[in-house]
Known about the structure:
Blueprint: E1 7-9, E2 17-19, E3 33-35, E4 41-43, E5 51-52, E6 56-58, E7 64-66, E8 69-70, E9 74-76, E10 83-85, E11 88-89, E12 93-95, E13 101-103, E14 106-107, E15 111-113, E16 119-121, E17 124-125, E18 129-130, E19 138-140, E20 143-145, E21 159-162
Parallel strand pairs: 1-3, 2-4, 3-6, 4-7, 5-8, 6-9, 7-10, 8-11, 9-12, 10-13, 11-14, 12-15, 13-16, 14-17, 15-18, 16-19, 17-20
Antiparallel strand pairs: 20-21
Amino acid sequence: xxxxxxxxxxxxxxxxxxxxxxxxxxxxxxxxxxxxxxxxxxxxxxxxxxxxxxxxxxxxxxxxxxxxxxxxxxxxxxxxxxxxxxxxxxxxxxxxxxxxxxxxxxxxxxxxxxxxxxxxxxxxxxxxxxxxxxxxxxxxxxxxxxxxxxxxxxxxxxxxxxxxxxxxxxxx
Length: 172
């Protein structure tokens, strides 16, 4: 971790792991998480207790983010085979690669997926979904999220209508 509270994994740091503890003690990583290597995993013990205070950006393949809250945005640049599972993202999510998965996440912002062969399943999304070319995209069980009380937590009654990913190639 650097002096600004950020975690940076360079291009030569393949197979890197960022493990976030299970203590309910506020923000665990105050800054950003940047991963340039392949096969990098950011693993938390649950979105309620494992918190990244800034943004997450990955440029390698096979990036995985699981069980964390990200206060900022998540941007996977050109990376393929990325996964976001059981996360809370308070900002936007942008995936620019192929064969990516977002599952069982609550996302306050918008989701934009520009590649092909992507999967969006069982998410609550506040800002809508854009899937680009939409070739072979699987989009199932996603619903609109209206954070009515602005507490950035998914509360009963805050989910709405099913979200359709759109386009001609996506499977709903």
